[in-house]
Design a protein that fits this description.
Two copies of one chain form a homodimer. By secondary structure, the first copy, chain A, is an alpha/beta fold. Chain A has two domains: 262 residues, Queuine tRNA-ribosyltransferase-like (TIM Barrel), CATH 3.20.20; 94 residues, no CATH class. Chain A is built from 15 helices and 16 strands. In chain A, the strands form four sheets. An eight-stranded parallel β-sheet of chain A has the order 4-14-13-12-11-10-6-5. In chain A, strands 1-2-3 form a three-stranded antiparallel β-sheet. Chain A has a three-stranded antiparallel β-sheet with strand order 7-8-9. The first copy, chain A, is globular, with a radius of gyration of 20 Å. The interface between A and B is large, with 38 and 38 residues.
């Protein structure tokens, strides 16, 4: 095949069970991709990541182009070999991080120029160089460069941005070197405006991509606005291509988005929260730094099979996190990634069984409970 | 049996192959104990520690009594269960850390009072409370509280310290609750003075302990002074008890000490160095932060079977350490502990084969080479 493959296995309402095929393996969907920003899922070995059931991870083009550099990674055999992750990898285009991290950025028709947040060095990204960097990284799925507008933005500004992103998407597609098992995804933009989302989706579908992402919804606009935007965007996307909601989110965000036809997710929340002592568990959320966990012999989550829950008490995790021990970050992160993967596996099983609505109701009510673990 | 057991299996010159038996398992000697200061060998899971061949680890009484507290660890089932290390554990008495970390310390005949370096709270340690804390931690081997004098110190000051430590050792022995598989070790002090070392060793042997440590030699007095002190101390120790050189050291320190009849070691060097990007390898030492490793596809040490060497390039480790990634600390630490355990296994095999002198010569010459890995 040219490009990545997608097989739609079954549906349950708008929720979809699918399978993406890439050069480095298959990904069962709905899928959550742990974020491996700088060629590592922070505080985890690749073996630990794989043990949770994760099949695909995300790498960040912005970080990797700055350090250690795409050419270096290419010379060392590509990102899979460099970081010892033999499975599928998706890379973003770098655009979002340029907007959120880089300094002195300047956006023009040609592309974006910026200053590295690491050492102040000058760099540029164009649709063509972004695609080329992602090829050097050997990403199974590459993303088109798009402009990410800070919200709120007025309709005129949003519309201009959608048009610029569309021209960039077309240039990205032209630049993309077609290879078996390697795909390029377009990114639907348009803020929370249904007309612009429709325009963006239709334009991208007319160009034709291996998959379609929904961008610009991980920037604090709230769950309701996000769901409403998905409701007016997803119907414009073809059923025979995977749909990826970028940078989202909390467990109940994922469940609600799958209910609206989304297949793929990535988010730093489980890894970042793990490093600061926040755990997602089946009965809500746990801040392990809280003093009431100091003597608690119970596991974080007694229904979880991860090592943090299998071998350690909340009291021990509390101790590690309070003492600033690296093992605390390692175990809390491991648990959170396991929790997210278990959540995805639960959604896949529910769709297979035709019971997704019940799964959604039960999961959403649990996650509304917060930190609810009395001794 | 009452106490820990020790079987002297064979000797090769002064080097000894032995086996310590404890309540939580056996330890083949010569042995290196990774340091698990705050109930964790920093940046490693217990499974990773065990995978290197380490059989016994060290815990620090000072750190654990302050956080999370000995009573809490006892209530949670002891240190083995708390930190998920089912094997043997040795704890120090807390004395050395009080001298090096605590504030406003005051040493009297009764014991030592001090202020916590964490929160400034007031605490005390006496020979009796130190032994009791180590019992609460469930340490397989406890150490007597001793006074660690800052060197250089004059003969009178050193002699007074040896006598105080001797009285504390006797009180420690009286306070120690005899249990099968649990032992108490005395600690020989006396700085670099042969007469005081002899007096200290003879006095402790007369009291009778399950093993004997040589203390006060990890404080920068230099390798030659350390070896000379071992030469005048070890002959005073009984052959049928294990001998433990506290807080030492570099690989060539360990080899030279085993040649002088030492059986056990602990040191923060492999773990601490790992976290700062320094690796011990068979051809010398590697500072992975050095720019010349940035594009090096070779492993840290091609004769090492640890995951850091099996799955990753120097270029990747360089990238992780430069980027401050936790995985860098994890992999570098894992390698260093593997290196130390391989060194101990090599010494044990050489003693078994009667070839220790050749092993010592070869290892020592390699370690004198420094960082010698040209591309």
């Amino acid at each position: 095949m040219s490009g990545t493959g997608f097989e739609l296995l079954t549906t349950d309402g708008s929720a979809r069970r699918g399978r993406i095929t890439t050069a480095h393996g298959v990904v069962e969907t709905p899928a959550f991709m742990p974020v491996g920003t700088a060629a590592t899922v922070k505080a985890m070995t690749p073996e630990a990541v794989a043990s949770t059931g994760a099949q695909m991870i995300l790498g960040n083009t912005y970080h990797l182009m700055l350090r250690p550099g795409a050419k270096r990674i290419e010379a060392l055999g590509g990102l899979h070999r460099f970081m010892n992750w033999p499975g599928p990898i998706l890379t973003d285009s770098g655009g979002f991080q340029v907007m959120s991290l880089a300094k002195l950025r300047k956006i023009e028709e040609k592309g974006v120029t910026f200053q590295s947040h690491i050492d102040g060095s000058r760099h540029s990204l164009t649709p063509e160089t972004s695609v080329d960097i992602q090829r050097m990284l050997d990403a199974d799925i590459s993303m088109v460069l798009d402009e990410c507008v800070a919200l709120p933005a007025d309709a005129k500004r949003l519309a201009a941005s959608v048009e610029l992103s569309m021209r960039w998407a077309e240039r990205s597609k032209t630049a993309f070197v077609s290879r078996d098992g390697y795909g390029l995804f377009g990114i639907v933009q348009g803020g929370t405006r249904p007309d612009l989302r429709a325009r963006s989706a239709q334009g991208l579908v007319a160009l034709g991509f291996d998959g379609y992402a929904v961008g610009g919804l991980a920037v604090g606009e709230g769950q309701q606005a996000m769901f409403e935007t998905l409701d007016v965007t997803v119907p414009h996307l073809p059923a025979d291509r995977p749909r990826y909601l970028m940078g989202v989110g909390r467990p109940d965000d994922l469940v609600g988005a799958v209910a609206r036809g989304i297949d793929m997710f990535d988010c730093v929340l489980p890894t970042r929260s793990g490093r600061t002592g926040q755990a997602f568990v089946r009965r809500g959320e746990v801040n392990i730094r809280n003093a009431r966990h100091a003597e608690d012999p119970r596991p974080l989550d007694d229904a979880c099979a991860c090592p943090a829950c299998r071998d350690y008490s909340r009291a021990y995790l509390h101790h590690l996190v309070k003492a600033g021990e690296i093992l605390g970050a390692m175990l809390m992160t491991w648990h959170n990634i396991q929790y997210y993967q278990d959540l995805m596996a639960g959604m896949r099983a529910a769709i297979d069984a035709g019971t997704f609505a019940a799964f959604q109701k039960e999961t959403t009510s649990r996650h509304a409970m917060g930190d609810i673990d009395p001794l």
